[in-house]
Records
---
Amino acid sequence: GAVVSQHPSWVICKSGTSVKIECRSLDFQATTMFWYRQFPKQSLMLMATSNEGSKATYEQGVEKDKFLINHASLTLSTLTVTSAHPEDSSFYICSATPYGDSRSYNEQFFGPGTRLTVL
Amino acid sequence: RKEVEQDPGPFNVPEGATVAFNCTYSNSASQSFFWYRQDCRKEPKLLMSVYSSGNEDGRFTAQLNRASQYISLLIRDSKLSDSATYLCVVNSFGGYNKLIFGAGTRLAVHP
């Protein structure tokens, strides 16, 4: 159980286009999902916390107008990179915390990641 | 100062070796501690949680020292399959189960 999927697994796009990444919890409901970014040879950096039915909470230095997050249901959160540029090329990973699970406060389940390359 | 700091690595060890990773964290209010493993170009996977009393899972032993804000991971009898990057992760008690990741320590086990 506790499987998280992401789509697409990789994407190549031209500079200036927008890219949407989906994160789904397949066998559980998640009131909270997290979006991370990882540059080569660096660790995961939390970008934002996505809460079902409310606005996302962005980390310092992350532009909310550039990285649009929507968490419309208990099983789906989307991250849209608007007007992508080459410096946005990175590995984007989501995670989810099960709703109503006593261990949920401690464990996050990660999606397989989306590799974005902006030309 | 980074919130979570780890040995920079890489660690290159032969099969069968014992290797230890260290980690320190800056937020004394942190509540939960973990070691994750990340293979190249993959998502991180939970290796084990770390408890104050110390805990063991097969060849892996994790220790936590709250007073020193120090976490360790010991791997005994290293296998080739242990080659990966090991991430020290701390829960930042900010209301939303926010995880803070260390930069990771790369382990390469060779024959």
Note: The interface with chain B takes residues 32, 34, 36, 42-46, 49, 51, 57, 91, 93, 95, 97, 104-108, 110-113, 115 of chain A (CB under 8 Å).
---
Amino acid sequence: AQTVTQSQPEMSVQEAETVTLSCTYDTSESDYYLFWYKQPPSRQMILVIRQEAYKQQNATENRFSVNFQKAAKSFSLKISDSQLGDAAMYFCAISFRGAQKLVFGQGTRLTINP
Amino acid sequence: ETGVTQSPTHLIKTRGQQVTLRCSSQSGHNTVSWYQQALGQGPQFIFQYYREEENGRGNFPPRFSGLQFPNYSSELNVNALELDDSALYLCASSSTSGGRDTQYFGPGTRLTVL
């Protein structure tokens, strides 16, 4: 069975600073994808960033970047220059080529302090 | 490009009743997945539909059923509602041309069972 663990239930950061959210996962598969989704109070799950396991280069999307450590099965999200609009629940998730489902972690609630 | 839409936004039912939730997939997407998100938890995979057939199922009882229509929209039906069915129900769509690995979510339907 595949599992995703987010060990930080809550995080807070000052506006304009940098914050890193942690995620570890467990799988015996070799071909998989990792995701970070953001869920603001509006409830809609929004894709933040995607990483393919076969790619060694870490994915980046503007202020969002990941640190993907395949051997350690770690996939952390770094948010630079934090903005008030970044406040949300952040979920780490994994899926597999040809498979049907996303497996999610329990989430990290991120608060941005002005 | 039209995103994933869901209806209704909120729904209140009583125990034992039946409910139908609806989802329209994002333009160009042919696969729909459904998730249940209990309060304070990460989403849990219910099932996925592709080519109007169930294409994978999570650990949910048979009273959770679904349909996919030729236009790729989908319904989630839940019979004999229980109090524990109270949750946010999320629909996500994806495309086989993209390997179905990246799912895009709708805004969800909040179901309350009294």
Note: The mean pLDDT of chain A is 94.
